[in-house]
Amino acid sequence: MRAVWCGFALGVIVLQRQASLPLASAWIALVLCVVLMIALVVWALRAGDDEGGRRAARIVSAWLAIWLASVCVGFGYAAWRAELRLAQTLPAAWQKRDIEVTGHIARMLAQDAAAASFLFSVESWGVLGSHGKTLPDLLQLSWVARDAALPMLVPGARWRLNVRLKRPHAEGNFGLRDAEATLLARGVRATGYVSDEQRATRLLPDAQGLGVRIERSRAAVRARIDRVLAHAPHRGIVIALATGAQDAVSDDDWRRLRNTGTSHIVAISGLHLAFVAGLAGWAAGAFWRRARWRGVEAPLIVPAQQVAVAGAVVAAAAYAALAGFNVPVQRALWMIVVAAVALWRSREVSRSHVLAWALGLVLVRDPWAVTAPGFWLSFGAVAAILFAASGVPRVRHADETALSPDELDPMREHDATPPRVGRIREFCRRVVGRWRVSVRRLTGRLVDSARVQWAVTLALAPLTAYWFMQIPLIGPVANAGAIPWVSMFVTPMVLAGVALPAPLDGYAWQAAHTMLSGLLDVLGMLEGWPWALLRLPQPGFWALACAGVGVAWLLAPRGWPLRWLAPFTWLPLVLSSPVGPSPGAFRLSALDIGQGTSVLVETARHALLFDAGPGPESTHAGERIVAPYLQTHGVRRLDTLMISHDDSDHSGGAAAVFDAVPVRDFVAGILPGHPLWASARKLGAQTVQCAAGQRWQWDGVAFEVLWPDPGPLTGKPNMHCCVLRVSTAQGGEGMVSALLTGDIEASAERTLVARDATGLRSQVLVVPHHGSRTSSTEPFLDSVWPLVAIFQVGYLNRFHHPQSGVYARYVSRHIVLARSDADGAVRIEAAPGSLAVERFRDTQRRYWMDTVNEQRDE
C-alpha cells in the first residue's frame, strides 16, 4: 500500500500544478492508462514461475504498473473533485451588487468588537432569473459594524443578509503563496461583505448538525478563554492550542516563533493529539480492567486492550474536531485510526505503512492539502523521524542496561566478610546498581530525543527555506526546550481548562499563559543572537532536490558510506543567490498588491523600491506582500526606498518594509512632519526629499527624478508626487527606459510635456494614478509613447480603475497592456535593445484562477 498511496499522492500533486483541468481526450487517456496497467499486473501475476531475470522483471513491471495506475487514479480523482467544486460559480453580472442570501454561519474565522469574518452556508438566494450555473453554497463574508454594535455571531445562527459578493480572487505574485488555493480548499466560491447591516435579520430556528455543534463548541471554548485572559498578550497562543484558531496570535509572538523555528508549537500537532489519545486510552483501559458486568469481569467480555484503543480513538477524534481538523491533526488522527484498526485485528503494521495510509486518507478528504505548507512540514517531519529511526533497534537489548558484577559492586572483595557487613554491602550494591541503570536509561532516552530533534530540524530546513525563506539556526536549541515545555506543561494545562468548569478553568488558563510568558521571554532573548537566523531567497527545484538528497544521506542508517560528503549537497541551497540583471540592464517588478502601487527596480547589485502599497489601515499589503516578496527574492537591503507621496495605498506599507529589510536611503515626496521621516532616521537611513534634477547611476543604469520641482511641497499630495525615470544607458543606442509616475494628474503631465517632451520617451510606463480619468492625457501619452503600459489596480475596486475612456486611449495606440487585477504581478527584463514582459497569470497560472478577461467574455 505504500507504493499505491505514494503514487496517488503524486497524481494529486501533479494535478494541483496544472494550468487547466483535463479535457475529454485527457480523461480517455487516463482511463486507458489505468486499464493497461491493470492488465499488465494481471499478466505478471498469472505468468509461470520462471527462474532468473524474467521473474524479477515481471515483479518489477507489476509494481511499476501499480504505481503508475495509482498516479493516474490520484490525478483523475483530484480533477474530478476540482470539476465539482469549480462548477459552483457566481455569475459575473452579480458581482458588487446587493444580493439577499439566507443561510447559517458555518464557522467563525475571526472576530473582535467591531468586525468579524466567517463562513456562511447558503440555504437560498434572493435573486430571481436564469443564470445557467450552480450557485455557490459556501461564502466567506466579513461584517464590519458601522452604525451599531456588532451583533452576536455564533456558528449555527441563521441569518437573512444583504451582501455584496465577488468571485474568489487573490493577488498573484511570483514566489508567494496563492490565497485562492486556500479559498478553494475551504470550498469557498464567492467572497464579500454584509452591505446593509440594518436589514440583517436573525432567523429561527438555528441550524443543527454535527458540524454546527463542533463549531459551536469551539466558539464556546474561545469565548471562555477571552473572558478569562481578556487583554493578556499571549492569549492568542492559548486559543490556538485549545481550538486550533490562530487568528488571535499577535504579530510580535509570530515574529519570535518564526525567527526561532518554534512556530509549530502554536499548531495542535500530532504530539498533542497522541498525548490526549494516550491519556484517554490509559484511563479507559484502567477503568475497564476493574469493571464488572453481572458478576463477570469486563475484560472477559471485551479485552481491556481493545477498549483502551477505542477510548484513544474517540478522544483523538474529539480533540481533532475541537482543533478544526487542520492537516497536521488529520495526519495524526488517521495514523492513530490505522494503528488502532491493526491492533483490533491483531495485525502488525509497519510505521511506514501507517504514514502512507494517513497520507492517502488526508488527500482523499482534501486534495488541495498539498498546496499548504502545513502538509509538507507535517508529513516531512514524521517521515524524517521514521527514516532516522530505521537504523535504530526498536527494543534495547538486556545487555545494553545490564551491569557487570564489578559495576554492581565496585567495593566487592574476595575475602569473607561478616554477615551484617555483607547485608549492608548488598543493599548499597542494589541502590548503586539501580541508580546506574536509571542513568543509562535516561541517557538513552535523551540520546533518542536528540536524534529525533536532529532529524526533524535537518529534514525541515529545506522546506522551511522554500516556504518561509529562512532557516532558524537557533531552532534546535529553542525546540529542545520549547517542545517539552509546551507538550508536557502548557498544553495539558490548556486542555485542563477546557475540561474544567468555571472558575477552575480560569486558574488553568492563567497558569498556561504564565508558562507561555516565560517561554516567549526566553525565545525573545534567543532571537536577538546575531547568528540565530539565516535568511535565504526562495530556492529553486534543483537546490531543493540536492538538499533533499543530503538530508536522506545524513539520516541514513549507520554504516552508510561517505556520510561526510552529505553536507556539500546543501551548498546550492545555502549559497544560492538570486540571479540579478547583467550590468547595464535592469529588472522591473510591478507587484500585485490590489489597489495601490509598489514597484521593485533591480540592477546588477542594487535595488530600489518605488512605493510600498497599502498598510494596516487598508489591506496590509505591505506586510502581506511587499515585505515577503523582498525576502523571497533575496533583497537583503534596499539601496533606496522612494515613497511617491502621502497616500495610504502608496505609503501605508513603508513601515512593514522598514521592519523587513535595511534601507540605506529614504526618498519621498511627503511633508516634513510626516512620521515616516522619523522612522527612517531612527533606523539609520539617509533622508532626502525627492525633487526634479536628482540623478544617479547604479551598475550602468541611470535614474532621474523628473517631478516635483525643488522647494516646499504645496497643494494636495498628488500634485507633488515623485516621478522617476530609469534607463539602461544615458543617450545610448537601443536605450530602454521605464517611467514610474505615481498618482500625478493632468496638470503635472502638461508641465512635464512642456518642459521636455522628448525626455519623457519611455518604453515602459507604470500608468499614472491607476488609470484615473484625471491622468493619462493624450499629449502625455504621445510624448511617452510606451510599448508596454502597466495598470496597478485592485480587483473590482471601488474607484472603477482603470476608467474605460482612459483604457481606450492605451488600446487605440496598440500598447501592450498588463493589469494587476487580471494578470497579477508583471516582471520586465530591460537591457539595451531588448525588452521582455512576463505576467504572473500567464507563466504561473493554475486551473482555479479567475481573471477579469474571462468574466468579460461571459
List the helices and strands and how they pair.
Elements: H1 2-15, H2 24-46, H3 53-86, E1 98-111, E2 115-125, E3 138-144, E4 158-166, H4 179-186, E5 191-194, E6 201-203, H5 210-229, H6 235-243, H7 251-259, H8 270-290, E7 292-293, E8 296-297, H9 298-301, H10 304-322, H11 327-344, H12 351-365, H13 373-388, H14 398-401, H15 405-408, H16 419-468, E9 470-472, H17 475-499, H18 504-527, E10 533-535, H19 541-555, H20 571-574, E11 586-590, E12 599-602, E13 607-610, H21 621-632, E14 638-643, H22 648-651, H23 654-660, E15 663-668, H24 675-682, E16 686-689, E17 695-698, E18 701-707, E19 723-727, E20 737-740, H25 746-756, E21 764-766, H26 778-784, E22 788-791, H27 804-812, E23 816-819, H28 820-823, E24 826-831, E25 834-839, H29 840-843, H30 852-857
Parallel strand pairs: 3-5, 13-14, 14-15, 15-16, 20-21, 21-22, 22-23
Antiparallel strand pairs: 1-2, 1-4, 2-3, 4-5, 4-6, 7-8, 9-10, 11-12, 11-24, 12-13, 17-18, 18-19, 19-20, 24-25
With strands numbered from the N-terminus, the spatial order across the biggest sheet is 16-15-14-13-12-11-24-25
Work out the helix count: 30
Outline, from the CA principal axes? Answer: globular
| Topology-level CATH name of the largest domain | Metallo-beta-lactamase, Chain A
What is the arithmetic mean of pLDDT? 86
CATH superfamily of the largest domain: Ribonuclease Z/Hydroxyacylglutathione hydrolase-like
Into which percent range does the helicity of residues fall?
Answer: 40-55%
Number of domains: 5
By secondary-structure content and strand pairing, the structural class works out as alpha/beta
CATH class of the largest domain: Alpha Beta
